[in-house]
Amino acid sequence: MASQPRPRIRDVAEVAGVSATTVSHVLNGKGRVDAATRARVTAAAERLGYRPNSNAKGLRSGRADTIGLLLPVGADLEQAHHVLAVEFYLTLAMNTVEAAFEHDQALLQLPPLRGLDDLRRFSVDGGIVVDPLPLDTRVAMFNELGVPVVTIGRDILRTQDPWWVAADSAGSTGMVLDHLAEAGARRIAMLSVDIGWSWFADAQQTYREWAGRRGIEPILVLARPDKLESSAVAAAAEVLDHRPDAVYVPPQWLASGLLRVARERGVDVPGDLLVSVGVDSHLARTSEPPLTAVDLDPASTARQAVDLLIHRIEGGEPAGPRLIPTTLHSRASSLRTPGAAHRP
Amino acid sequence: MASQPRPRIRDVAEVAGVSATTVSHVLNGKGRVDAATRARVTAAAERLGYRPNSNAKGLRSGRADTIGLLLPVGADLEQAHHVLAVEFYLTLAMNTVEAAFEHDQALLQLPPLRGLDDLRRFSVDGGIVVDPLPLDTRVAMFNELGVPVVTIGRDILRTQDPWWVAADSAGSTGMVLDHLAEAGARRIAMLSVDIGWSWFADAQQTYREWAGRRGIEPILVLARPDKLESSAVAAAAEVLDHRPDAVYVPPQWLASGLLRVARERGVDVPGDLLVSVGVDSHLARTSEPPLTAVDLDPASTARQAVDLLIHRIEGGEPAGPRLIPTTLHSRASSLRTPGAAHRP
DNA sequence: CTGAAAGCGCTTACAG
DNA sequence: CTGAAAGCGCTTACAG
């Protein structure tokens, strides 16, 4: 419990019989230092459990060795109905933490930013903004303060910005639609939402193009973006009115509403209707029936985002956006087993 | 995009026509400063968008104005089956962030700590360790470095430690058992797990005492702590072998296994079996039937933990542990509607 | 290869 | 009520 005073660089220098300068050189791999001296310094630092004071280091170097993470959820997340994506965000966060750690950076969780002053209170070398809205204000704040920023998800209106990492929505959509078509679907609808996140925007565009190429009239229903159960149910009812034989649902939070309405109408999944959702989750895996879903690989996404941010912090050239490949987990909801239709 | 140089305290001093000392006094509410001077300084700081450099501040004061949060999940959380509690942890994390922010503290997400050196790399004034195991190593590391620490959940073996905040497990258990008894249950079992978290340990003890007071033989089945689906199912089968008419399941991740086994055996919930789970979640709310569950109020828990930690950082006397009251959300799984039993 | 010295931007005795 | 000066623990030209 007794907090012994933390060793300073001069303590290490003393033990090693050199100057603080030399200790600094050794520890930071700068300058030329004799191998024997280097060994003595390393040993002394090790023995004392020396860790440079990050405030002093940061003050001198102007770097905080800290990056900020801004999730699109606040403290009121219990209320929000997109709680279904919590696994995704928590996985994203924990992987960001570990990736940052491996790069010798600490990870600051930023609260929702109400203004520039909120952001100014944190000293970070860079920031990661998750799920930017079109012309995202949070990104603008980082830019305004000259702090390097990278987004997870693309800001669909900042078309010149190369500093983002995102799961491949267009590719995923093509994969899902092809999968449903191969399973025999002829009238494939999309049930989505009108939020400006690239995951949804790109899915819609890809769906339209895909339908166009096949000369099919797209059936596209957008739920209200309020994430309320009632809106989900209303949109589900509307899409079923079109009598599709398959539905792709990029926003995973609309899936349970769709299943419920289908059940109420006696529409069997997968017998009468194939379903695939956009973001894999425990719920998708344990749903009845289990739902075919796209695995967005939040772990890789987080790591790529940290890499890209550090590249930007170090003044690197825009390395271009990074698209993260996805995987389709095919489950019972999209498997048309002959004879399984119209089970009682 | 152009990063204009950040204003320093001397810039503010210059604009206000005073010394840096006075600016510091005004901004930190120290010393006596003339009201007019104070106003000029405040205005100047405001106009320049001045924010003290936290590294300089920290170097001088020895404080980092940063607290660390250590969740019991790592980057591999997709694998772990306790993903069901992700809402709880994410809510905890986001509320910790906001509470810290309101106390002018930044919140560092700490990665899993493999040793003292990992912890030394972070400069934090204090730490919050979530769900400590008995004689928790992470807590020991903070103590070893002399960094104030507070736990969310009680370390059941460090009985002298008053620095914790936890949802009231004993109270919740009593509430659930009474609720089930009032609904008519006579043979109330507990399906839990042998992990040393206080939430589970206290629930078991309370259950035993409760049964003892009523002269009932407790039916207590503990699942293996590996969080595998197979272990959950095995434990569920074992508890149903005892033919209980109600089960309280403190670890929420065992609930779906119980429901599945009950369905397979033709045991109707709630007709033949009342069920209540320990941690409320979206899954509990949307389960079929919806599950009666304890709301642990992670938001209050997080805020109290931050309060307590700051109290400890400031050298306050042990204020004693803080028990967070819980709420029971009574849902269909524990409502014995006469005649509802043995629905097809 | 090594070290003395300056300075990063603050806060805090201390003097006036 | 106000300010000059020291110093927190580092890193980095610079000199030797």
Present the secondary structure layout.
Two copies of one chain form a homodimer.
Chain A: H1 9-16, H2 20-28, H3 35-48, H4 54-61, E1 66-70, H5 86-102, E2 106-109, H6 116-120, E3 126-130, H7 137-144, E4 149-152, E5 164-167, H8 169-182, E6 188-193, H9 198-213, E7 219-223, H10 229-241, E8 246-249, H11 255-264, E9 274-277, H12 282-286, E10 292-295, H13 298-313, E11 322-324, E12 327-329
Helix pairs in contact in A: 1-2, 1-3, 5-13, 8-9, 10-11
Chain A binds a DNA duplex (16 and 16 nucleotides) through residues 8-10, 18-22, 24-25, 28, 30-34, 37, 52-62.
Question: Which short descriptors sum up this protein?
Answer:
homodimer; 344 residues; alpha/beta; 434 Repressor (Amino-terminal Domain); Rossmann fold; 3 domains; 6-stranded parallel beta sheet; 6-stranded mixed beta sheet; 13 helices; 42% helix; 15% strand; elongated; disordered C terminus; DNA-binding
Characterization of the model:
The structure is a homodimer of 344-residue chains. The first copy, chain A, is of the alpha/beta class and 344 residues long. In chain A, 42% of the residues lie in helices and 15% in strands. Chain A contains 13 helices and twelve strands. Chain A has helices spanning 9-16, 20-28, 35-48, 54-61, 86-102, 116-120, 137-144, 169-182, 198-213, 229-241, 255-264, 282-286, 298-313, and strands spanning 66-70, 106-109, 126-130, 149-152, 164-167, 188-193, 219-223, 246-249, 274-277, 292-295, 322-324, 327-329. Chain A has a six-stranded parallel sheet with strand order 2-1-3-4-5-11, sandwiched between helices. In chain A, helix 9 links the parallel strand 6 and strand 7 (219-223). In chain A, helix 5 (86-102) crosses helix 13. Chain A is elongated, with a radius of gyration of 26 Å. Chains A and B meet through helix 4, helix 5, strand 2, helix 6 and helix 12 of A and helix 4, helix 5, strand 2, helix 6 and helix 12 of B. Chain A binds a DNA duplex (16 and 16 nucleotides) through helix 2 and helix 4.
